[in-house]
Specification:
The structure holds three protein chains of three kinds. By secondary structure, chain A is mainly α. Chain A has one domain (2-274): ABC transporter involved in vitamin B12 uptake, BtuC (Orthogonal Bundle). Chain A has helices at 2-30, 37-53, 59-82, 89-111, 137-159, 161-171, 173-179, 183-209, 215-230, 235-255, 260-274; strands at residues 127-130, 133-136. A two-stranded antiparallel sheet of chain A has the order 1-2. In chain A, strand 1 (127-130) and strand 2 form a beta hairpin. The radius of gyration of chain A is 18 Å and the shape is globular. By secondary structure, chain B is an all-alpha fold. Chain B has a domain at 24-236. Chain B starts with a helix and ends with a helix. Classes of the chains: A mainly alpha, B mainly alpha, C alpha/beta. Chains in contact: A-B, B-C. The interface between A and B is large, with 46 and 44 residues.
Amino acid sequence: MWTILAINSVTFGGLLFLLSAGFSLIFGLMRVPNLTHGSMFMLGGYIGSTAIVTWHLSFWLAAALAAAAVAVFGGVVERLLLRRLAGSVLAQVLVTLGIAFIVSDFCLMVWGGDPISIDTPSALSGGTRTLGVYFPTYRIAIILIAVVIAALLWALLERTRLGAMIRAGVDDPEMARVVGIRVSRLFTVVFCLGAALAGFGGFMGAPILSVYPGLDFAMLPLALVVVILGGTGSLIGSLVGSIVIGFIYNFGLVLLPQLAYFILFLPMVVVLVLRPQGLFGRAAP
Amino acid sequence: MTARRVILAVALLVMATVPLWVPGNYYISVASDILIYAIFTLSVDLLIGYAGLVSLGHGGLFSLAAYTVAVCLGAGFGHFSAILLAIAVTLAGTAVFAALSLRTTGVGFIMITLALGQIMWGLAYRWVGLTGGDNGISVASRPAPFGITLATSAHFYDATLIVFALCLFAYWVFVNSAFGGSLKGTRDQPRRMSALGYHVWLIRFCAFMFSGFLAAVAGILFAYRAEFISPPTAALTASAEPVLMAISGGSGTILGPVVGALLVEIVKNVASAYISRWNMMLGAIFVLIVMFMPEGLVPGTARLVRRLRAQRAKAPTT
Amino acid sequence: MTALAVRDLQKSFGGLRVTQGIHLEIAPGERRLIIGPNGAGKTTLFNLIAGDLRPDGGSIALFDRPITRLPTRARAHLGLARTYQIITLFPKDTLLRNVTLSLLGLSRLRWNPLARLDRQAHLIAQAESALARVGLGAMAHRSLAETSYGERRRVEIAMALAQNPRVLLLDEPFAGLSIDERGEVKALLASIPRDITIVMIEHDMDVALDFAERISVMHFGAIAVEGTRAEVVADPRTKEIYLGE
């Protein structure tokens, strides 16, 4: 029983990583906690599910579509709205809040109030039994996918020019501008990337979590917790933080259901109060 | 300025006579809700507009008061004790919120208050033994101050209006006071204020406490109005709405939050008969206001009116 | 008795030592000028004295009273006032309100949530005379946003003087001012009575040298040359420090 819980924790951690890696990059680079991020996660789930159920696309095509569609949405939001408010972080935060409200109702309008769940792709359904424990294949797959994406993101940040620019922007946006980095273009790229990751995560999570109204505002605070614990702009921090939160969340619900949210958010509050820059990353502004 | 006085007088008259001209108990209850959310929005805007701190966790304080009333009544307490306890408990909760979130300002403050509000929601949702979880708690009866029953919508509205008027007056006195001046100073130039001898943290803390008190009043009124309390009252959306209301109406003004609450509640309750997606409208209006009229509706409209007047004054007479 | 005594003050940011063992003794009523090339650590020194920064070592005393551990606001109550390089006042408010806020900072009234601020006749009268003292009495009801930079600098000085400080720290008061405005501020500073000790950071040599009695030249976070105006001007090290820049 504990093994299953552990597997589920790491799986949930994987989904959280997909959700919060983007949030962390956006926050680190643009200094804006993107309150639309949970909505993007949910949108990915809805769009991907529709792709499978209504348009009969394959699972992976649907996943790609979900990521792409949400990335486009993110791009539109960033260029049309956030860029106009450059310089006022507070205004940008408020706009993302307003958009979260719009998306929440939009999804309710289009997809209705009932939870939508999709089947795990046949190639990944079922499980394997080794060492006396049942390992659901899909959940293991999510963990692997999250790790692969983490590796790809790491490669992007550490080994490419774009990544270097992003890291520079996170460390010191003023300096980055002076050095000639097109920071506003970078913002759009990172925002789209974060959105794509969130949308992808929302779709990958759909067979497990389903997609339902309220998923957006349920996931958003979790992204916040992971990023605060792991440090803004830190990839390792997001990964470790996601897994830790995955464990706290799942085990907490089983062991201390009444205080589940309490123990989930308390570490975040403690960290914010004692160490505003999180456990790994650089100083939050 | 007389045009303004006339508008205010008319508004007062309209508000005082609501039970007479509003059609039906449902809409009278909506009117009560408008006043309740106006008080709640004032409590949130005290921090946004005057302290420069955006809280996304005030739903936690609002619901703390409402739940305390419900739980106390359920445990057999009388109305007076329940209300007193609700205020005391919420003030204690506010002190904790303030002590934790005032470690930072700006975005950090938004995030800590969001987390604290979520903790309250989590407790409401999961501490089923105390809060009834998703099922909520019913409030069996309303108080009868001086023997006058508040069971009817009309009477409850009148009582709410009196409380609202008292809160509005207290708010007006507070923001125009010397302390209010200190608070506004910390909003604009906290570093300079320290150098001038002000205790910036303590000023913010005291403002937060008054804000928590107003949120408690609103929460208590809400518990009695709805005669029921459940976890959605503590959810993130419940904390976000007053922020939207305050900024839309005009943060840092006295009428702005009231107008904002009026706007949102009307959209929610009245327009929703014609427009089914009011959250979307609310979000859209909010985004438009942040983008194009960031000072909010009340100051923004006043500015437009002034400009129109100036243009008309310049126009040649025919 | 010294008005301001700084002993062996140290401050580092990460690996960078910005303040290295500074010794400073300023007599009551003195006019001290602190000069030095950019990056010498002058404003950091002011921030340490005022309490915005905590030193890593050393001590600060105001009229022989140790203030090293005191927060900024407490130092204001003990008679320390300062102005800033970049003027940060309250642009949405009138000049009168700006100065009133300064007076309020030292008054018990600042905690009063009932008394209407714009009805406090006593406070307002004091604010009006503080503005008159710097020649801005007629503009009391103008919004700060509608004033020139030079006028704002004078408002800032009015706010500092309104608190009847014992020690006044001026951080580049002439920066950004036109020739005329400089003359006005110079006259204003000259008129400040001797019961206020003044320490000034400045770059503009013409105006500042006139004003100074004693000069401390800072370089790389330490005091390199110190003495009377004549001594410092004649000292070859002073030229070296500036030419080396």
